[in-house]
Each structure stands twice: as C-alpha cells, then as structure tokens.
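Appendix B, Record 12. Input sequence as logged:
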Amino acid sequence: MLQVCPNGSRTEGVPVSPEEIAAAVRAATDVGAQDAHVHPRDDAGACTLDAFHVAAAVTAVRTATPSIGVGVTTGAWTAPDPGERAALIRSWTVLPDHASVNFHEKGAELVAETLFERGVAVEAGIFSGTDAAERFLRWPHAHHVRRILAEVADTDPQTATGTAKALLHDLGTRLGRPILLHGEDGGTWPVLRLAARLNLDVRIGLEDTLTLPDGAPATDNAVLVQTARALITP
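Logged structural output:
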C-alpha cells in the first residue's frame, strides 16, 4: 500500500486549504497513491482537530477522490492536552476513515481509545528514538489498530536504514498488524527502499520530504508518488 502525506506540519510549499489538499490527493491518486494521511488546517494555517476544519478537509478529499481512505493526524501539536484532543475527536461531525496516534506522546492511549469509540480506525505512530514501541506493545488494544506507522526520525541517509531495522526489531511480529515504514527528510528514500524490499506498506509526500532521490526539489506530491511507485514496483 502506498499512502500519500501531502502536507504535514510544514508551513510553506504544501497544500493548506481543503481544496488544495483535495487536489493534491487526487493528483497523487491518479499516479498511484492508495490512501491519504492529511493534516487539516485552521484559518491561520495551523494543524487542528477542530470539527469544522476536519470535516472540511475530509469531505473535500472524499469528494475529489472517493475511492481511497482518508486519515488525519491527532499529533500533540494540534492540542497539547490529551483530554482536549479526546474532546475534539468526540465533537467531530464528519469522521475520517483512520487517524494516526503517536504513542510517545502523553495520553496516546486515551486518544486512541476515543477514536475507537467513534468508529475511527487507528494508525499507531511508533517513532524511533522514543519509548513508543514499548508503550504500544503494553497497550491491551494494540492488536486492534489498522496499521502501525513505523516512523524513522533519523534523517541521516547513511544511518536511517539501520535505525529502521532496529525499530522493526523492537516492534516484533507477534501482533500481526500491517506495518507502514517511512522516513523523514534525508532518510526518506533509503527507508522507502528498505520498506519495499521487506514488502511493507510505504508512504511519501511533502510531509516527509521536499526532494527527489537525486536531491532535486519535488515540484508537488504527485511527482513524489510517481517516483515512489516506480521504485517499489517490481
């Protein structure tokens, strides 16, 4: 599975409005993306879990590209207090198909369980260099998540794949859940190649990298997806 992550928390050069996000996802889907992970933004451009803005982003993507699943972030930067994040999730009027929960963040279990209550599938974000894997594996509902996002925070292209292998080792295989392995910035393409070799799910988009494998600037999300598709297709 190839997921597009079109904007993330970047502030420049990424789609921000619901219409821009929807257009980016549609263009990425046209060249091979099969799922989307988006960051809804408020009127000031900040990532948000506010019901109005989540509904606008999710509805826009579904209208433009009804064939794929759409997920959103629940990262602590949207609202530092986990109780507030849970309350915001309970206020959603339009539900995404899935939402990511970063298990190194305070209150991750509460946020994930609130998503389950709303019928939203969970992508468990497990960052390298944190205690997330240990916390996640202790959580009694770990086997209920849709997939595990194994997130390699090591941006050095020389060491990122080693960090990725260590993270996968920490996660083990006993849960039997799909794993989406991805890197960031300089580690993005080496980790994507490793994920392809291991037959794991992958993602790509301007959230993760602004450049192509040769270091040239990526003009948009579609070119990143098209490049990734060529790399992972046998």
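The mean pLDDT is 97.
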